[in-house]
Design a protein that fits this description.
Strand order of the largest sheet: 6-11-7-10-9-8
Order of helices and strands: HEEEEEHEHHEEEEHEH
Strand content: 25-35%
Oligomer: single chain
Helix content: 25-40%
Largest sheet: 6 strands, mixed
Number of helices: 6
């Protein structure tokens, strides 16, 4: 009888602990689901789609950013934080942070472009090919698996699972497979760097599919289709770690009108 009572008490204590633990995880902003990286069932963190570090250069004195929405009086609104969603488990978040985000941040601090950018200037550096490349592929992968409406335009299809496996295995492939290239964006007026981040956008380059991402004053291009787009491929990160960043005036960028007309339209026709 005493043994049965002890078992019953232990079960109740375990149930109480599990409820307490569940509530604690909920308060930390976690929820139960399937991790989109390891595909294991786990508690998922409400984490950034893009690392917080890539938005650091564009944050104001109060730590907020201006989001270009095309809405309201000026077409922008302040945003305290970047896009977040429950996508990865704690183990995978730690893995991505340690393996890709921290190494990239350390490298970028030593090679980042500085104001003003001079026409014809080129940044040449040696980086860790695997970690540098997979950092950008990880950002694109997260945008693709996101269900946020702002990122609905990122649809990688079968490439999504390929990138997932590459990220998990630390396999960056050869330099032409999902080639990654960067263009520093600056003003043709005074050389000032473009301090803005934009959603990833699908673009055709010489009839080949690519996605372009804007952060850290740079346009990062990821080629999805095989072959073609030779101009981009010549600038792509090489397997020996050779990185070459050239500049491009943002006023001459092909999606300039789409991005900046939202603000320009508000300036010409402000809301009442």
């Amino acid at each position: 009888m005493n043994w049965l009572l002890a078992v019953g008490t232990a079960k109740r204590n375990l149930q109480i602990y599990l409820v307490y633990r569940w509530e604690a995880l909920m308060k930390r902003g976690m929820k139960h689901g399937v991790c989109r990286l390891c595909l294991e069932e786990a508690m998922l963190q409400n984490s950034h789609i893009f690392p917080k570090s890539v938005s650091k250069p564009i944050r104001g004195d109060k730590g907020h950013m201006l989001e270009i929405t095309g809405e309201g009086r000026y077409g922008t609104k302040p945003r305290q934080d970047g896009y977040k969603e429950h996508l990865l488990c704690s183990a995978c978040e730690t893995f991505c942070n340690d393996e890709y985000e921290k190494p990239f941040n350390a490298t970028w601090q030593s090679i980042a472009p500085t104001n003003p950018w001079k026409r014809g200037q080129v940044i040449q550096a040696k980086v860790d090919y695997v970690k540098f490349k997979l950092f950008h592929l990880l950002n694109l992968f997260r945008a693709s698996i996101s269900t946020l409406p702002e990122l609905a335009g990122v649809q990688l299809g079968p490439h999504e699972d390929v990138l997932r496996k590459m990220i998990l295995k630390g396999d960056a492939g050869n330099s032409q497979r999902y080639a990654v290239a960067g263009l520093v964006l600056y003003s043709q007026v005074d050389g000032s760097l473009l301090e803005a981040n934009f959603h990833p956008k699908r673009m055709l380059r010489e009839r080949r599919t690519s996605y372009t991402m804007f952060y850290l004053n740079t346009e990062w291009i990821v080629l999805i289709s095989d072959g073609g787009a030779e101009k981009v491929r010549r600038l792509a990160l090489q397997e020996d770690g050779t990185l070459m960043l050239t500049g491009h005036p943002w006023q001459q960028h092909p999606i300039r009108d789409e991005i900046f007309s939202r603000i320009a339209d508000k300036e010409v026709n402000p809301s009442p």
